[in-house]
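Data follows
____________
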Amino acid sequence: MRAVIQRVKYASVTIDGAVKGSIGQGFLILFGAGEGDTRAEAELLAKKTAGMRIFCDGEGKMNLSLADIGGSVLVISQFTLYADCRRGNRPSFTGAAAPDSANALYEYFVRLLREEYHMADVQTGEFGAHMKVELLNDGPVTILLDSEELKRPRRE
């Protein structure tokens, strides 16, 4: 499972000309589920996301979490995080989870952020829809989380 977390000043998602979700300061999360991913990976990413300290404190150090600053979250499903570009010029997406499974994991991840980690303002896009995402990346700060990488022991 993969998530791209962008620290933003604002972000919104528009579907068919209508704004579906909009946030102020917080995280824009692009979320992708891979073949074989389970709820365990969603739980790992939600926990890591909730604890991520990438907002600046009074001394300018990235030391504050989303909860510390009262920030919001916009989660967008994005199977293209599983693009395989090793052969040719047209990516293959065979590593992405099947749509039914991916949608269930996407919804579970969102529910975890809302219920387990008590994030009051979690907005979403629409799974499978063609979406227009607008954001102002703050920093820029962009973090890639991959559940396979997070499970590996850290090399010292």
Summary: Helices lie at 39-51, 66-69, 99-116, 147-151. The chain has a mean pLDDT of 96. Residues 25 and 140 are 13 Å apart (CA to CA).
